[in-house]
Amino acid sequence: MDDFSSCTQISYFATGPVTSDRSQFLSFFRTIPSNRLQALGLARLVVHFAWTWVGLVTSDSEYGKQGIEIVQEEFARKGVCIAFSQLLPASPNMPDIMNAAKVVTESRAHVIVTFCGFEAQPLLMQLYRQGMSGRVWLCSEAMSHITIFRNQKALLMFNGSLSIASRKEQVPGLRDFIVQLHPSSSPEDIFIQEFWSKIFNCWWNTSSVELANGCNRCTGNESLRDGTNPFINMMGFGLSFNVHNAVYAIAHALHNMAQGEPRGRKRTFAYRAQVGTPGFKPWQLLQYLRKVHFQNKVREEVSFDQHGDPPALFDILNTRIPSADNINVVRVGQIVFSPSQGEDLKVNDSAIMWTGGSIEIPISVCTPSCSMGYRRSHRSGEATCCFNCIPCAKGEISNQTGASLATASICGSFLPVLILAVFVAHQETPLVRANSRELSYLLLVGLALSFFGCLLFLGRPTPRACLLGQVAFGLTFALCLSCILAKTLVVVAAFRATSPGDHMRLWLGPRMPRAVVLLGCLPQLLLCATWLAASPPSLRRDSHTIPHAITLFCDEGSPVAFWGMLAYLGLLAGLSLMGAFLARNLPDAFNEAWLICFSLLGCLGVWLAFVPAYLTSRAWYAAATEAFAILASNSALLCGMFLPKCYILLWYPELNTRRFLMQREKRTGI
Fold first, then answer.
1. Would you state the pLDDT for residue 422?
2. Closest C-alpha among 234, 122, 115, 236 to residue 164
């Protein structure tokens, strides 16, 4: 005789998470969502509403203990703290109820997660008598059917609560089939007679013993069609679809097994017949049931994951109780757990009516977030969500400063892209063509990258950010200055090449500016590569400067490489400034040399101020100083080089003509 555990089993009602353990229940499947998914759904809702300080109430049963354990594990992963955890005994006495009520009322948690059922009614009644209000109850499925609470005081505590419940569809046609049943239409079917007797509390065929016991005889006029019988409208009626799915899953598995070919050979009729003979073993069905995947009659996906669990769809219900005799339960969202689609949480926050009739999401935190200029200081012996807010130490960056620099970095990276779009739209006009449009495009790209690279200096330092921050800045800014140097040489060459055979005309072609940009970036690239290979920047911890605190900062690694990178950038800027200054008086109505001079003067001024500020800053504050210097120098180049051109392109297009560009040349007689 085969061991029962080796037989394939499908349950339509077992929800305990222990049966998902494949080491103990290898052949167990179910068509009802596991309690584990209920617990995960509750945790997802807490995270969705940004609640970090919640209470837990659970029943002293396997259902409550297993469910709340999963909730606690998920809370620990998501950084949610537990204000209290109260266990409700199955048969509580008054001292137990009073103690539980005291714990709940004295807690600052405004959200209470429950994983229990009817056991919570005594506690709810006591809380009502004490006048407790303003709490949000987040309930598992056992408490989603609030009609189990017969006491009106307990019911009123659920006003504004949220709960999750697995969606229960009805088998299409099943209700119509049941309401037309009648023992007289199938007199040979004893099951219909028994069903009729149970529903209407009478006996269809009464024996003398039953008559002697005072049993009522069914009249035959009873009917399920009038809609008054509670059986038709009972909540558990939807569970019939779980049975329906289980039967069809077995049917699909048997069909697939019947269609399979043994060992790659075409099956014969004799082999087909073995399915119905004693040679067929129940465990043979297991491998086919694992792969079952189909859509049922309401187009729901039916399959099983590695734990034997089906796809789960939970409705998020909002309970509204304007009065004791007016109870409304409204669906405000859903949670989907599917092996093929993953997790999906959808909540209509604006449709939720919270406790007290409020439509604003309640706040449940131990300590509100610290204001700008303050930092967290953990309270000894308390949860991580409870802390004090103390002023930042002198020289530290507040969140406001970091946020401002990050905003400037992001906005600054978009501005060169917009200017590039303007230049591309006017690429055939004289103003854009006269100023080396290819170099202009490349310069705008370099500025956009340099702006965006400032984000690596902001926020919490990480090993990757420390490694890439300085290198990214050095390479992108070297690209920008190389483009400006090439532009300067092109301006000089354009006015020095006075004869057709002059060697200066070589600078007017596209190859020479490209070579200048490449040669300008190459030394910086070699320097950065050597820097990363020999002594790269890294993350460091400072535990001495500020007592009782550990500060993270980025160490440059090699000071020689860092200052060498800045010195090379200064060399490129100096050469460009020198060439532009010498070409400032060359004839042209729109001489770009003037723009280069002003841009580089602003850029060099920023970096001359940066050096002493950087040397006198603390290690973690130096990053913000450098980020500010990068943003300021990028802005000087962007505004000085391109804003005057955009001004003409967008607001004075009549000046964007070759005649205007040549006016100064005519006035000087050249």
1. 92
2. 115
The yes-or-no verdict on residue 117 having pLDDT over 60 is yes
Q: Is the pLDDT of residue 238 over 70?
A: no
Whether 12 contacts 246, CB under 8 Å: yes
How far is the C-alpha of 126 from the C-alpha of 137, rounded, in Å? Answer: 15
- Whether the full predicted model's pTM is greater than 0.85, yes or no, is no
Query: 543 — alpha (psi -120 to 50), left (phi > 0) or beta?
Result: alpha
Nearest to 82 by CA among 109, 101, 106: 109
Spatial neighbors of 38 by CB under 8 A, at least 6 apart, are: 15, 67, 115, 140, 141, 164, 166, 314
Residue 344's DSSP bridge partners are: 336
Would you say how long the chain is, in residues? 670
Counted domains in the chain: 2
Measured in Å, how far apart are the chain's first and last C-alpha atoms? 111
3 state DSSP class of 320: strand
User: With the C-alpha atoms ordered 146, 148, 152, 153, is the resulting torsion angle positive or negative?
Assistant: negative
Same domain for 628 and 504: yes
The answer as to whether 259 is a domain residue is: no
3-state class (DSSP) for residue 317 = strand
Residues 332 and 454 in one domain: no
What gap in Å lies between CA 218 and CA 205, rounded to an integer?
8
Distance of CA 304 to the CA centre of its chain: 26
Token pair of 215, please? 């049993």
Q: Give the structural domain span for 138.
A: 33-169+310-357
Burial per residue of 364-395, b for 16 or more beta-carbon CB atoms within 10 angstroms, e otherwise: bbbbeebeeeebeeeeeeebebbbeeeeeeee
Q: Alpha helix (H) ranges present in 62-181? A: 62-78, 94-106, 121-129, 141-144, 152-156, 174-179
* Pairing mode of beta strands 111-115, 53-59: parallel
